[in-house]
Amino acid sequence: MTHTAQQRTDVEGVDGGVGLTALLVAAARAIETHRHDSLAQDTYAEHFVRAAPACADWPVRIEQVPAGDDDPLWGRFARYFGLRTRVLDDFLLRSVRTNARQVVLLGAGLDTRAFRLDWPSGVAVFEIDRAGVLAFKEQVLTDLSAAPKVKRLLVPVDLRADWVGALTTAGFDPTAPSVWLAEGLLFYLPGPAETYLIDTVDRLTTGGSALAFEAKLEKDLLAYRDSAIYTATREQIGIDLLRLFDTAPRPDSAGDLTARGWSTSMHTPFDFTRLHRRGPLPEPNDALEGNRWVFAHKPRA
Questions:
Q1: How far apart are CA 265 and CA 252, in angstroms?
Q2: Could you read off the pLDDT of 250-261 as tens digits, one per residue?
């Protein structure tokens, strides 16, 4: 494959910058969906990939990849996204079956959980992302005549702007238990923006609420510049993740939540590979080595 994606960080939709990574995840979910041992099903994912000119030649099945699972991008990295999807699906469903009546997807991207998961009645899903990303998603879903399985509310706003006002205007109730998800989001934000986001989630949540997010622990992300995953992503599809990530020191958001009384647990993706017996395992010079999935619960008063 050739370089099909132009690296631009100021693009509003999915044609470049961080928006393009949403298509990378969609392609990975499509590949996962078609596996015989699939961990997550997203039948909409391949339609996003096919609708975007930037990724017209990307695979949506592992059989379309010459090296198959030995390909570091479409094999190992895509399997990572498939595993992440399953783990976070399980977290959200567990949360709404116990306490939460509201789900907030921060940087929702091309997430289709409102369409593909079986939600209990009375749940509302809020999807926050930039207007251009949500507009692209809506066009594809409308063309498919897709119908959500839950009350779904779009919140078209940049997380660097006043997203709290937009969320509450859309109907979010801070007094009702909620579950929040920041999937593959925080390491694109400057450290102060991450701190503000975590502080705001704490402020907008009542007892019985929950939050899951992905963090990276590396002190020097550039140390992994030559890792197989980052190299393949750069060379095969022209996405330089390390140019999109914010490489300044990261806040300790899990520690901050713990200090505020939340119960938090932190896991490596490999913990869930072992649990599900599918997914990536550690390897030398591993770009996934510092990735952590954090699950936090705010106790009832």
A1: 13
A2: 999 999 999 999
Please answer whether residues 8 and 17 qualify as being in contact, where contact means their C-beta atoms are separated by less than 8 angstroms. yes
178-182 sheet: strands from edge to edge: 151-156, 124-129, 102-106, 178-182, 210-216, 291-297, 263-267
Q: Can you tell me the distance from the alpha carbon of 264 to that of 253, in angstroms, rounded to the nearest whole number?
A: 10
pTM of the model: 0.94
Q: Domain holding 177: CATH number? A: 3.40.50.150
> Which residues span the domain enclosing 108?
17-297
**Average pLDDT for the chain:** 94
Other Cβ atoms within 10 Å of 170 Cβ, number:
17
Contact indicator for 16, 5 with CB cutoff of 8 Å = yes
Domain count, the chain: 1
Residue 144: Cβ within 10 Å count: 13
Q: What is the 3-state secondary structure of the chain?
A: CCCCCCCCCCCCCCCCHHHHHHHHHHHHHHHHHCCCCCCCCCCCHHHHHHHCHHHCCCCCCHHHCCCHHHCHHHHHHHHHHHHHHHHHHHHHHHHHHHCCCEEEEECCCCCCHHHHCCCCCCCEEEEEECHHHHHHHHHHHHHCCCCCCCEEEEEECCCCCCHHHHHHHCCCCCCCCEEEEECCCHHHCCHHHHHHHHHHHHHHCCCCCEEEEEEECCCCHHHHCCCHHHHHHHHHHCCCHHHHCCCCCCCCHHHHHHHCCCEEEEECHHHHHHHHCCCCCCCCCCCCCCEEEEEEECCCC
Q: Is residue 248 part of a domain?
A: yes
Determine how β-strand 124-129 pairs with β-strand 210-216: unpaired
Domain presence at residue 47: yes
Per-residue pLDDT tens for 75-125? Answer: 999 999 999 999 999 999 999 999 899 999 999 999 999 999 999 999 999
